[in-house]
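Lecture notes, unit on binding sites. The following record was shown on slide 14. It pairs a sequence with coenzyme A.
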Amino acid sequence: MSTNNYIVKEIKKENFSSIYKIHKETFDKTHFLSYLKENLLVKYYEKLIIYNKYCYMIANEKENEINGFLFAGYKTHFALNEFTKENKFSIIFALLSHPKFIVEKIKLVLAKQFNPKLELKADLRLIIIGVSTQFKGAGMALKLLQHFENEIGVDGAKLYGLSVRKGNQRAINFYLKNKFKIETTFMNSVYFYKDIN
Ligand SMILES: CC(C)(COP(=O)(O)OP(=O)(O)OC[C@H]1O[C@@H](n2cnc3c(N)ncnc32)[C@H](O)[C@@H]1OP(=O)(O)O)[C@@H](O)C(=O)NCCC(=O)NCCS
């Protein structure tokens, strides 16, 4: 399939609802975020786009249909912290409704206590990429990635990084195919970086 008719554009607030639908359908249930209700997840997207410059979607303009999205920037972690601080009660409620994530969070906190600080090569982080189920394997993710890399290249970035769950083989294959290198592993995650020179 050709992606010629699909264009990459910046995400605006009015796109959040379509992005939420893709998010729900494409992320499996190992991701805590996929359990959050629309009003809450939208607040997270909002924080991401306020603090991070590189937030894109891929859309077929003719049919007015969004098929994938990518959020990245230098303050993805900061955005997550702000979101967590401002919505702590709703997040605690979601955690209590899905206790397996409480165990996971406790393990993570403990592991961080007992392990030397996780120093990563790149401050620029790609925090989420997702493509609607129907359009997986069609080159949408690649087009999003290429657009993002062009933009950060223009801004002078040389490197960016991301992390993915160890069991997410499709995403891991996608990153390996696209010249990412493994930086480290920690708990359930594999950390990748990519040199864009
Ligand atoms: C990760 C993601 C963005 C990649 O987009 P994609 O359109 O699936 O990418 P590709 O079609 O290039 O597939 C990537 C690789 O996955 C593998 N793959 C393909 N079909 C697969 C399947 N059914 N099951 C497992 N792996 C598969 C292949 O190795 C493929 O490489 P190939 O083209 O050499 O065959 C997309 O799969 C997705 O949205 N996943 C859910 C959200 C997610 O996990 N995001 C990443 C974490 S933030």
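Take-home: The two ends are 29 Å apart (CA to CA).
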